Give the backbone structure.
Amino acid sequence: MDNYYNIINETMEEMLSYFSKLYSEHDAQLQEYNAKLFEVSVKLDELTRTQNVYSLNTDYRKNVFSPIEFVPEESEKESEIKAEILNLKTKRNQYEYDINEQTIYLKSIDKRIQKLNASKVALGELMLEVDNKDSIIKEKEEAAKTAVEKHEEQKLQKEKEIEEKNKNSISIDEMKKHFKNIMMIESFDNTYYSTVLDKRIKNNIYRNSSKLESVNGIISSDPGKSKMLINEVITSDNSMISVIDEQLRRMNYNIDEKKKFDDSIRDYIQELSEKHPEVIIDINIDGVKRKPDFVLYSYIYKLLEIFFDNIYKHSEAKHASLSISEENGKFEIDISDDGIGIKKNYLSDAEWYSGIHRAKELLFILSGDMVIKNSNGTKVKINFEYE
C-alpha cells in the first residue's frame, strides 16, 4: 500500500509542479499583455490629443487664443494620425482579448492545482483509514497543507507586486492631465511669441518705413525734422533688437553646447547678477561629470529661469544660493533665498500658465520631482535622472 501511495503521491507532485510552472508562465504573459495594453492606451490618448491640435476645425485655438474662425478641413497630418489611431485601437482590442483569454486559462489552471492539493489531502486521509499509520498520514497532510499555503503565498506575493507596481506607476488620468497642461502652455507661448512679433516688431517696422518715406520727401526742405525722424527710427530699431534678444533668450537660442556645464551655469548666474545686483547669489556646482545634451540644457535653464524670476519679482530677497550636483546620472538642484517666502497654496492659487506650473510639467517630462518649503525664505529641491 505504501508503494501505491508513493507512486500516486509522486505523480501528483509532478502534476502540481507542472501546473504551478504553467501558471507562472501564463501569469507572466498576462502581465506582459497588461503592460502592452497600458502603453497602447497612453499612445492612443496622446495621438488623440495631437489630432485635436492638428485638426483644422477644432474650437481649441479659436476659443482660447484666436478670434479667427477656420473653415473645417481635414489636413494630411490629421489623416495620418487617424490611421495610426485606428491601428492602435485594433491593437488595444487584441490585447484586451488576449488578457481575457489568459485570465480564463489561469483560472482553469488554478482550479486544477486546488483539486490536486485536495486530492493529496484525500489520499492522506485514505491511507489513515487503511493502514492507521498516523505519523505517515500526518506528515503527508502537512506536506499537502504546506503546498496549498505555498501556492496561496505565491499568489498573494504576486498580487502585492502588481499592487506596488500600480501604486508607483502614473495613472492614465494623471497622464492625460499632464499632456493637456503641456499643450496648453505650448499654445500659450506660441500665441505670446506671435503677439510680440506682430505688435512689437512688425508694427514698428511699418511705422519706421512710413517715417523713412517721410524723410525721403522732406530731407532737402526740412533737414531738422528729417534728422529727428531718423533718430526715432534708430531708437525704435534698438528697442526691437532688445525685444528680439529677449525672445531668443526665452527660446534658449543662445545655449552653447560646446561649453562645459559648470561654465555655462556660472556664466548664466553672472548675467543674472549683472541685471539684478540687488540680490547676491552664491553658487556651488559639485560632481557634474556627465555632459547634458541640448534638450536637458534647455530644461535646466528653463527651471533656473522660473525660480530666479520668482526671486527677483516676488521674494524681496537680498541673498540667494544655487547648488547643482550629479551622481550616476541623478541630478539634484537646490535653490534658496532669504525672502518673504512663498504662499501656502501657491499651486492652486497660481494661474495655469505660471512659472510654478511650468516647472511641474518640465519635471513630469524629466520624470523628476520638486519640493518647495518655507524656511526663513523659500527652499526648492529638484531631483531628476538623466540617462
Strands lie at 280-286, 319-327, 330-337, 369-374, 378-385. The first strand starts at residue 280 and ends at 286.
